[in-house]
Design a protein that fits this description.
Alpha-Beta Plaits, alpha+beta, 248 residues, TruA/RsuA/RluB/E/F_N, 23% helix
């Protein structure tokens, strides 16, 4: 039995997140159905992590097992022909038999895109936000995140997480002519964490929260202290990194 990693991209608008759910379409279920059809046997995939309803992925990874896959180029053509237009398999690579898409990931990156003007071609892909935002102040607040490792204040209240510790490697806002893009990289993320951080940072940018208050929210470890979550359509899982040695 061989193990393979799939590199997947998807537009999450029409899905209730990555993970399989009863009576709701998910990316994972759609992918498993396509793989099972092409490979003519039941296939189960394990993703590098969950994305919520309406959230997108520029790079998601998932692993699955099969005796022999055959030529990767032929496999990619066949499975992409079966998948809907909003899900694409970018690559497939054989990995070590014990490699795990979720547990072997070392760093995960998200980006959150705020649109500063109405653009019909970006519908469902940005948060249209017309507030006057103080970007340097938002970056000052984002930099405070690197000083802490417990982010319970930015986690969903109902969660399966056994702890709220995350190592944030970087967090910053990038100013574009018509967009603000928040980039964040960590070893793990809590459910709803990035959207809660973005929603709270926007309050800082609007002048409705000071840096001291933002830091106090982190220390409070209570979700009710933080701001409302930013809407899902602006969020993208952008990169997942693994140690080189797991690839065959």
């Amino acid at each position: 039995m061989k193990r393979y990693f799939l590199e997947v991209a998807y537009k999450g608008t029409n899905y209730h997140g990555w993970q399989i759910q009863e009576n709701a379409g998910s990316v994972q279920d759609t992918l498993q159905r396509a793989l099972s059809k092409i490979l003519r046997r039941p296939i189960q995939v394990m993703g590098s992590g969950r994305t919520d309803t309406g959230v997108h992925a520029l790079q998601q990874f998932a692993h699955f097992d099969i005796d022999e896959l055959g030529a990767s180029s032929d496999f990619l053509k066949r499975v992409n022909a079966v998948l809907p237009s909003d899900i694409g398999i970018l690559d497939v690579r054989e990995v070590a038999p014990d490699a795990h898409a979720r547990f072997d990931a070392t760093w995960r990156s998200y980006r959150y895109v705020i649109g500063l003007r109405k653009d019909p071609f970006e519908d469902g892909l940005v948060w249209r936000c017309f507030y006057e935002l103080d970007v340097p102040q938002m970056n000052e607040a984002a930099n405070l995140l690197l000083r802490f490792d417990d982010f319970e204040s930015f986690s969903r209240v109902k969660t399966e997480a056994t702890h709220f510790r995350c190592k944030i490697k970087s967090a910053k806002w990038e100013q574009k002519p018509n967009h603000l893009i928040f980039h964040i990289t960590a070893n793990r993320f809590l459910r709803g964490m990035v959207r809660a951080i973005v929603g709270t940072l926007v309050l800082v940018g609007r002048g409705r929260m000071t840096l001291e208050e933002f830091e106090g929210i982190i220390k409070a470890k209570r979700r009710v202290e933080a701001g409302s979550s930013a809407p899902p359509q602006g969020l993208f899982l952008s990169e997942v990194l693994y140690p080189v040695h797991i690839f065959v």
